[in-house]
Every structure is written in C-alpha cells, then in structure tokens.
Amino acid sequence: MNTDDSSWWPMGDGVLCNAASQTYPSCNTFTHALSFFNKIEGSQATARQTAELLRSVISQQRVPYTNQAGALIDAVKAIGEQLIAANPVELAVGNIVRRVLHIIREEDLSLTTAAIGGLNLSAVSDDENDDDRDGDSTLSAAAVAAAARSTLRPPSLQTLLEDTPVSAAVPQTSSSGGDSEGKSKFSFTAADKSSRSRKLKHDVIEAVNELIQDIVTCHEQIAEQAVEHIHQNEVILTLGSSRTVLEFLFAAKEKKRSFRVFVAEGAPRYQGHLLAKELVARGLQTTLITDSAVFAMISRVNMVIVGAHAVMANGGVIAPVGMNLVALAAQKHAVPFVVLAGSHKLCPLYPHNPEVLLNELRSPSELLDFGEFSDCMDFGSGSGSPLLHVVNPAFDYVPPKLVSLFITDAGGHNPSYMYRLIADYYSADDLVVQRRATAGN
Amino acid sequence: MQFDDQGRVNKSKKRAVFNQPEAKNRVELFRHLPQYEHGSQLTDLESKFLELDSMHPAVYKVGVQYLAGDVTGGNARCIAMLRAFQEVINDYSTPPGKTLVRDLTAKISSYVSFLIECRPLSMSMGNAIRFQKSRIAKLPLTLSETEAKAALCNDIDRFINEKIILADKVIVRHAATKVRDGDVLLTYGSSCVVEMILLYAHELGKQFRVVVVDSRPKHEGQALLRRLLAKGLSCTYTHINAVSYIMHEVTRVFLGASSVLSNGTTYSRVGTACVAMVAHAFRVPVLICCEAYKFHERVQLDSICSNELGDSNDIARVPGRPDVNSMDNRTNEKNLQFLNLMYDATPSEYVSMIITDYGMIPPTSVPVIVREYRREYLLI
Predict the structure, then answer these.
(1) Phi/psi class of residue B196: alpha, beta or left (left: φ > 0; alpha: ψ in -120 to 50)?
(2) Distance CA B20, CA B37 (A)
(3) If pLDDT is split at 50, 70 and 90, which confidence band does A399 have?
(4) Which residues fall within 8 angstroms of residue A314, CB to CB, at 6 or more apart?
(5) What is the H or E stretch that residue B356 is in?
(6) What are φ and ψ of residue A135, in 5° steps?
(7) What is the distance in angstroms between the Cα of B302 and the nearest Cα belonging to chain A?
(8) Do A286 and B234 touch (CB under 8 A)?
(9) How distant is the alpha carbon of residue A83 from its chain centre?
C-alpha cells in the first residue's frame, strides 16, 4: 500500500485512521443500529445516513498514486458489504452503496477522458517525432473509448482485456520518448496525477453530496407531479402511511383540488390512523376503513396511490403487508394503481422468491396477546412441535403487471421501463457488493 | 327502509321502542343505511325493561343479546329468534273480538320491528320470519286455539331441525369428502358450519392443518382458534393483510356465508371477498358452506347498496395501542369518518362450489334452488 504523503490530505473531519486495520467507528455504530436496534426507520432516513457514512469513508480513505478509483471502490465495497449484511431487508442501504460505487466509476471515467485530452495537448509542445505523437493520440483515443466502454457495458472478453486503461495509459505515455522528454513528461504526469487524484476524491464527494440532496428532496419533486394526476372530486384509496403519499396529497390540496381519501388502516401497525390524522389536520375529507373492507369500497374509488418500501429491477414492488390485496382488488375493478417511490428505492436486483427472501417476520404479539395462547405456542410441550404458529410478515410483493404507474423524482414511468433507470444509476459490476480478493480493479 | 328519507325516519322514530341517537359523522356513501351512536343504546334499552308491557320478555332478552353482540352468526341469531317466537306463541291468548291469525301476525310484526331496532335482520332471519308468517296464514280456520298454537310450535321445531340442524349435518358429510390428507385448509372469521366441518374431518382421522385468518375490529377468528386448538388441530393464525403471504401454502379455502343471492353473489362477513379474490389469484378452490334456507331471491352487485354499519368507535380505537389511540377523541371531527362495514358481497366468479344440504352446487344454480325448492315451504 502506497504511503506517499502527496496522496494524503485532510478533508473535512481531519481524523486520521489506520489504513491497515480499516476501522471506521461511525460505521460500526451505524451497522449496529441497522441490525439490532431498528432505530433508523424508513428508507429515506436510512439512505441518507448511508450516503453520509460513505462520504465520510471516502474522505478519510487514503488513496495511492495509481488506481485511486480502485482503492476507493474497494473501501466502499468493504463497508458496503457489512452494511448490507446487517439488514438485508432494508434494500435502500444496498442501493446507496451501489450508487456511490457508480459515482466513483463515472467520475473516474470523466477525469480520465479530461486528463488524456489534457496530456494530448501538452505533448504537442514537446520535441518528439511524429510516430510517438501519433502513438499518443491513437493510444489516448483508444484508452478513452475503452474506458467509456468498460464502465457502461457488462463485462465481456474485450472489456476484460482493456480492463485497466487508466493505470496502463499513463505509464505508457511516460515511457515513450527520450530521457529528457520522458523526465519532463514524467514530472508533468506526476503533477498531473496528483492533481487528478485530488480532483477524483473532490468530484466524488461533490457527487455524493448531490446524491444526499436528491434523497432529501425526493418528496418535493414527486409532489410537484401531483396536480397532473388528481382531478376534482376524485376519490383516492391508500393503505398504511407513507410520507411521500402525504406530501403528494398535500401538494394537490395546495393547488385547490378537492378530493376525498379512503385510508385503510394497515394492520398490524395501524399506520393508517396516523395518516388519516394528518390528512384531516390539513382539511381533507378522510374516511378510515379496515383492511377487510378494501374490496367492498374499491368499486367507488377512482385511483389507488401508495408508497413503496423498494422497487425491484423487474418493476415489482416490495410494499407494506396488505398491498397485494389492494393491487388485486384494483385490477379487478380497473382502478389505476399508482406507486410513488424516490429513486433511492430503486434496486437493481431481480426479486427471486420475494415473499420469503425479501420479507421480515415480526413478533406474534402484534396479533395475539402473549398470555392467551402461550401454551399452544410452546415448543417445549408435547411432541416438541407447537400446535399454533402465528405468521406476521412485514412486507408484501406486488408483481409488475398489477402496477399502472410509477411516479419517481425523475418523472412518471411504466413498470416495464424501470430496468432502464438502473442503467442510469448503477454499474453492472456492482450488482454483487463483495470485495474481490485479487488486486487490479 | 330508506334512511336518507327524512319523513320516513321521523315516522319510525315515533314508533321506536328506545332511543337511538344518530351518528354525527355519517359516511355519505351510506346515507341510506342506519348509522347510530352505539355508546348509549344498551343502557337505554335496559332502563326500559320495566316499562315495556307490550314486549314479551323472551323477545326483549333476544333483542338485548343482539344489541350487546352476545349472539352472532346467522344460524345462532335465527334459532334464538325462533325459540323466542315459540315462547310468544305458547303464552299467547287471543284477545276477545279478534282472530288468532291476524292478531298473532300483527304481534309478530311488532316484535320483529323491535328486533330490527336492536340490530338489522340477517337474511336467514328474514327467511325464517317469512316462513313463520306463511304458516300462520295457512292455519285452517277449524282449529281451536290450543291446537293452532301446538301446530305452530311444531312447525318451528321442524324448521329448526330440518333447515338448520340436519342441514348442517348433511353439509358436514359432503364437505368432509373434500378434505384429503396433507391438506392445508384456510378459513376466515368464525363460521359455525366450517368449524363443524373441521372438527368432523379431524374426528375421521384425516391429517390436515388449518389456517385461521382474522381481521379487525371483531377478531372473530380468535374464538374459533381457541376451540380448534382445544380439540388438538394444528393451526396457523394470521391477519387478513398477510393472506397473500400464506396463500401459496393453502390447498382449499372454506368460507361461511350469511346468505347467497340469486346472482351467485355471496353475502358474508366483510373481508370474505378479499380472501376469495386472493385465493382465486393463486388458483386455490374456494368452497362456500351455506344452508339452503339462507338463499335469497334478491340480487346485489356491490357491497354498498345494502349493508350493515357497526360501531364507528370500534374502528377509531385500537385496543392495546395507545400511540394510535390518540385518534379516539376525534370521532366527532368534521372531516373524519370511520366506516365499520359488517358485510360484503363476493362475486360468483371467485367461488368454485357451494356446499348446501341439497348437495354441492355451482354458484349459478342458486336461483334454481330458490325457485324450485322454496315451494316446499308452502306445501308442508
């Protein structure tokens, strides 16, 4: 590991950390909070905290001369692995880790393009023969093209062979040409390299700041689209409570649309009660119904608007339990089912067996009082297998064919389009967040 | 009766036996149905106990039981009402100058309107009352009073025996053939017929497991769960939102019904339609178990035109959740309404089969039975 002082500078916190042990105290507390205490509730808060944590990791990370991007990516992957393992059901954590990795790759690519373009211009002033110059220009063009291809396309044999354009390109240009020119060029490239690495970290941190800003303001951007979808005298149905839905409805109310809302209470958390309270405080006509009455009432509803816990790559939705019921009823009565989700909820994974793998089973005490059936639920009595099992899942999977529209902070989309957004936000290399044992990339 | 018609409402209030304050925050969509404040009804009725000379104590007792919710379920309510009518008939004596037929019919009608005030009639009760009145009307004029009374009581006994008790036995025999070893049976709420089926199949020695789905506000499934566990059945308990999660394990769904209407729609406890819809989406057969006396020639397309509204406080208050219950003092806020539906209508395409005492029929055969076999009421 390069301990060159030119690659280390204070950034914000000014806390030095031991590169060998790679301990980040803030990371450990965050991981603990995620896995054990569930203190951080809600995808938005989780996403924001993850992004801030990764920002501090990046700023504290010491990067070597060559392959800074690789070092940053390794560091983020190491932390990201721990964060994802702490709470696999909270998909927003994995999403943000992958977003940051994508940011690092993108910033690196743009810097490479700019740097190689800059090198080309400065090389003209040197006294070199034409062959070298031609070699430089063709190499830089090829390097740029290769870098561009490798970051945006899935790995293939071609991209694997051109895998390290960054680290390969710079030493080659420095080795071509005579000694004096080489030395001057070497010193130039050295200065250029350090300024480039400084710039990389700086750019990455700026981009992560933008990401945090996007996460924080996603509600406003979604709420701006409310007026396009809600007309006068509309009847809207929702289940449980979602802050995005709340802001959405408020925005429509601000624009003087009058509409009524049916809120299903969303057992066993009963968050629908809280949502109804907030809606009534703002002057909206609200009716609170039980979840069992959803089918009875949906024939008189114009639109169903709900929030989501996560949106998967196929357009499927992981939502609070009971949502599949509402989606099926809406399909039967041809009522549009609209899902509001910030872009930090978009997950690049495909849901395989989501009812089991992406679900969380909560305590039976939310359904039954502890004292009543405790003898039947006891594993110790009789043959060792209890007579009574209580099932209390926290999430539900809604398949993409039941969803009419996704409204994200990037606009409204069909479920069949969601996989394209993934190409914008994530890199194909990052789908499995695992630190690779080999050095290189 | 139309509760959105103010004239009729005022007229019925004058005839009413006890006071029922109307709910302040009525849901607009249900203006045609009665919505009352449930808090003071029971105490009001109990305080009137000594004032009601015209009310037979047996009918009064049944009314109080309905209002308090002690007697629930179509069969139980129907049997309670008919037994009360038996006592009424036994204690009845024709006043001078009146005929038995007309006077008794008028008395029964007044008792029925009292019971409606306590709780709106279920379809099973409506059919039983129609049977009763037709029996009274068909009494031969040559009978003496004691003979007429004995004949009427006999008719009631036969009705209860044939249409309810024996019918249940036949249904249980039929349905038990549909339970195989290794089955996972799902049921919703608490239906007495489905409970009998499960216990009978268990006695026959079939190996199966039961999933009990429950919902707010009544949590009727918990009582069923207790009784099943006492008999040693292995059960899973969940709430209605988790039905999509559990449905992939389920092989059959058994549901009870308050009534089956002539267009094949099943009218039963709210939430049944949701369970049937999810079962249909997962291709699990849905079997409705319903005695034939509950069939009705009415037709209904949705759950709104005709329904029953319960206590809105049951929705506002969640027992054991103080963080949510800060809503409680807001029941009278202008913009907020609570809707406590009791019934809903399940479309016929979600139902695979209806098991009745006439056999196992598809939902499309219900109007046939209503038309062909109802005549036997009149031919007895």
Answers:
(1) alpha
(2) 7
(3) very high
(4) A350, A351, A400, A415, A418, A419
(5) strand B353-356
(6) -60, -40
(7) 7
(8) no
(9) 13
